Amino acid sequence: MLFSRGLFAPVLIPFLLSGGTLANDALERAEEALRTLQDYYNDGTGMWNTIGWWNGANCLTAIADLALVDPSVVETADYVFNNTLNKAPPSNPNPGPEVKATSKRSLYSRAGGSANASQWLDSAYDDDAWWALAWIAAYDVTEDNTYLSLAEGIFAALTKAWGTRCGGGGIPWNPTDGYINAITNELFLSVAAHLSNRVPSRKSDYVNWAIKEWDWFTAQGFIGENNTINDGLLDNCQNNGATVWSYNQGVVLGGLVELNKAAPNDTYLQSANKIAQAGIDTLADSNYVIHDWCENTDCEPDGTQFKGIFMRNLQMLHRASPNEIYKKVIQNSANSIWENDRNEQGQFGVNWAGPPSAGNIDASTQSSAFDALVAAAAI
Ligand SMILES: *[C@@H]1O[C@H](CO)[C@@H](O)[C@H](O)[C@H]1NC(C)=O
Ligand SMILES: *[C@@H]1O[C@H](CO)[C@@H](O)[C@H](O)[C@H]1NC(C)=O
Ligand SMILES: *[C@@H]1O[C@H](CO)[C@@H](O)[C@H](O)[C@H]1NC(C)=O
Ligand SMILES: *[C@@H]1O[C@H](CO)[C@@H](O)[C@H](O)[C@H]1NC(C)=O
């Protein structure tokens, strides 16, 4: 540890919370959260113990996001990108919903590792897209084309899954069960839009895919009357009224920010602002701290990952379209995590209002809270 937690004794806080010190304080919190997250990192498997394959992509993305604003963690980030690329299984060794690990051992017994995108695939299209975003984030930090090419290859594979059912388009959740859900399509939009700003030679292809996805998405019933996004579509292609998960209010924001950068159109940020506002109205408590519908051990390690993803994308929207409410949500959530939801080992629980409950702390709750601390540090 580089600094003592004792520094944050309440009596000192008024001095620390002034001017530029606030930013430094937020960075130090994120750095400490990263050190605790890396206690779960398994150098041999290139993955984080206690969580699943898709969660790993989100750990990697959050680390990249911190490295983009904090040069002191770039070395750690570079190591993780390279080690994970070389050691992690390129396809999910345990397909299906992630299971809670009963011990702190790794869920992975088989190490793989490949920069070959056709091997870096899963039986769930959303998982593939999480990794595409993670490798794009690694590229943003390193400018190493290996990562960008891998993301492009993953996206190329996803385009082959473009569907024919609801409105003649969209990406189903996976190749077999046909469920059309919001997250897979939000991710497809976001990957296409991110690539359009990073691969000049194929910019128009990626812009076209992003617009095609967004036009299709808005023509389906995903977005409810109050502008929140439900989980997915019924077999008859109408909104299924299923849970308004925080990450579904988030991924679309980053996608629209990137699309607006590549192909500006005022409606993109207008839509993003409506969805973000509706998400906050639905998910924030009276202290502007974000919650999700499931905050107990039953949701580990999938549902416990979601809130950080919302914060990461809300921060992207705040940068493109600043709003005091977004700032308040990001800062209040981060402050509450630090003050109310952190145990003596520096680990975070799933309920950001606290307290951290011993039974449901793992690398998903850690990296989700870390995402919020990174968003606060990036403001
Ligand atoms: C990347 O990881 C591989 C496998 O662990 C290692 O052999 C190689 O030296 C690493 N490359 C860099 C640049 O650190
Ligand atoms: C990538 O993996 C695929 C599928 O395993 C294989 O057919 C292809 O030859 C590999 N490409 C390279 C360049 O190794
Ligand atoms: C902007 O986007 C909206 C919604 O997708 C679309 O209807 C409109 O044609 C776009 N405007 C331009 C100038 O492309
Ligand atoms: C918006 O609608 C969803 C149901 O689709 C509901 O869960 C949520 O509470 C609503 N939000 C508000 C602010 O009423």
Can you put this structure into words, describing what you see?
This protein is mostly helical and 379 residues long. It has one domain: Glycosyltransferase (Alpha/alpha barrel). It contains 13 helices and 2 strands. It has helices at 13-16, 20-38, 53-69, 74-87, 125-142, 145-159, 182-196, 203-219, 251-262, 266-283, 306-320, 324-340, 363-378, and strands at 41-42, 47-48. Strands 1-2 form a two-stranded antiparallel sheet. Strand 1 (41-42) and strand 2 form a beta hairpin. Helix 5 (125-142) packs antiparallel against helix 6 and helix 7 (182-196) runs antiparallel to helix 8 (203-219). The longest helix is centred in the first third of the chain and has 19 residues, at 20-38. The relative contact order is 0.12.
